[in-house]
Each structure stands twice: as C-alpha cells, then as structure tokens.
Specification:
2 strands; 285 residues; mainly alpha
Length: 285
C-alpha cells in the first residue's frame, strides 16, 4: 500500500482510485468496506466514491494529469464538468489538449472550454540552493501548479533528481536545516548532509545539531557538516568528511605529540569500524 502514499491518500484521488480498484474483490467488496479499511489514512466513503468515479473516466482525460497529479479539488471540478457538459464533450476537449507545460489548474480550465490563463514560466538556475528550490516547489504545490515532482520538473525544466534531493533536505528537522544559510547551501552539500544522516542516523545528527545551536557562531556550510559528524569529539581529535559518489569518508586526525599510548593497528581499526556500522541502530526520536 505504501507506494500509493505520495501525499495524503484521502486527497490523492488518482492514487485512491488505483488502490480501490486493486483491492476490490480481495480486500473489500464495496466502497463502504474500503473506506473502513482505509480509515487510518483519513479516508472516508465520500473520498472513495469520488475516487472511484474519477477512476472510471476515459484514459484520455486521466492521462492529462499523469505528470502534474490531481488534487481533491480538481476531482470535484472534473465531476462537476462531467455533469454539466457531459462525458462525450469532456472527452472531445481532452483529446485536443496538449498537457506539456500546463498546470493542474490550466488543464481544468481548458476542459471547461476556456483558454488557459497565461502564467510566467518558472525558471531556476542549476546552481540554485536546494533549500530555495524546495521552497519554490512547495509554493507551486500550494498554488496548484503541480502536485508531484515529475509535474514540477515537466513544467519548469528543473532536474527531477535534484529536485527530489532538495525536497528531502527541506523535510529534515528544522534544528538541522536552520544551521545553514539557504543562499549559500549547495546541492553538493545537500548530498553530503543526506549521506551523513544515512550513515550516522537522524537521531545522532539531530543531537549534534542541537549542540551547535547551543554554541552559536559564524560557520561555513562545510564546517557545519564536519561538526554534525564530530559532535562532542575529543579536543585533540579533528574530524573531517568527504564524499565521492555513494562513498562517504570520515577521517580522524590526531596530534602525535599528545599521544600517550600506541594507536591500535589498521586491521583492528577496520574491524572496529565495520562492527560499528553493522550494529548501528537508529535511536527513537
């Protein structure tokens, strides 16, 4: 079921229609039973009924929303149009529409027989901060310009993979993201941050971020990333990080003059590191 949950299921009529159709005759026998089974996801019978009616529309209409997705409000508008002009007229209009570079609202307006409102196409530089990019994406969702990453990418020309990274970083706890200046935070640093969290676990990084907030100072993004890894490290040990592809390297540097005992040899250190990675557990937040 999880692959249907891109946004809240009750307000994602296309996903709910697919889920209802897949479960019909196996998990439920009718809309009432489906609503009862999906109640934990905020789904009521009216949501199932609306989704089922949307799912029964011709593919030519539904395909218009393949990239931009469909809002609950959009589903209501489509069903209202179907009652007003009839399914045959709605289908004829759909066949004449090219969905490229059109928002959800544009498509509904064309289906209603009116010309789409001219909107200025968003532009976003490749080097733009991922935090700012994520904010623009959220603004477009609010304005019903798109409801999916693919829809935003198709309408604006943003790279979908980079947009996905930006949104993933923006969804991290504010205690982490507030450490960075959005204007100076780069995509490279966003990928580094996600790699650090994947390796250390979110709880550990949140704990280290709280320590940085307790000790406010002007820090570069690179220094912040290093301190999110280091946490409360020993004063005579310097920690640094670097990433290449999917590999994240964490280095520990020691002052030789301060050493009182010999460091364990490399083979023991490798075994210790491997054991720590195998046995690392994400603590509950």
């Amino acid at each position: 079921m999880d692959h249907y949950l891109g946004k809240q299921l009750a307000h994602n009529p296309l996903a709910l229609a697919a889920l209802y159709r897949d479960g019909l005759g196996r998990q439920w026998e009718n809309q009432t039973e489906a609503a009862r089974a999906l109640a934990n996801f905020g789904v009521r019978r009216e949501h199932v009924n609306r989704a089922a009616r949307i799912g029964a529309m011709p593919a030519e209409i539904l395909m218009l929303f393949r990239h931009v997705g469909m809002f609950d409000k959009t589903a209501r508008e489509l069903l209202s149009l179907q009652r007003t002009v009839g399914l045959e007229v709605l289908l004829q209009r759909a066949q004449a529409i090219s969905p490229e570079e059109k928002s959800c609202a544009d498509i509904v307006q064309l289906l209603s027989g009116q010309p789409a409102t001219l909107r200025q196409r968003h532009s976003f530089a490749v080097s733009a901060s991922p935090l700012l990019r994520a904010a623009k994406y959220a603004e477009g969702v609010t304005n019903q310009e798109w409801s999916t990453l693919a829809g935003a990418s198709a309408r604006t020309g943003w790279d979908e993979s980079r947009l996905s990274t930006a949104v993933s970083v923006a969804q991290l706890p504010a205690v982490i993201t507030d450490l960075f200046d959005a204007n100076r935070f780069t995509m490279q640093q966003a990928l580094d941050l996600l790699a650090i969290i994947k390796l250390l676990g979110l709880s550990k990084v949140v704990k280290n971020a709280k320590l940085l907030h307790e000790r406010p100072s002007r820090r570069s993004p690179k220094t912040i990333l290093k301190l999110l890894v280091a946490g409360d490290s020993a004063p005579d040990c310097e920690v640094s990080t670097s990433r290449k592809g999917t590999k994240l390297t964490i280095s520990f540097s020691f002052d030789v003059s301060a050493a009182r005992n010999c460091l364990i040899d490399v083979s023991q250190l490798q075994k210790l590191s491997a054991s720590a990675l195998r046995n690392s557990v994400e603590l509950p937040r």
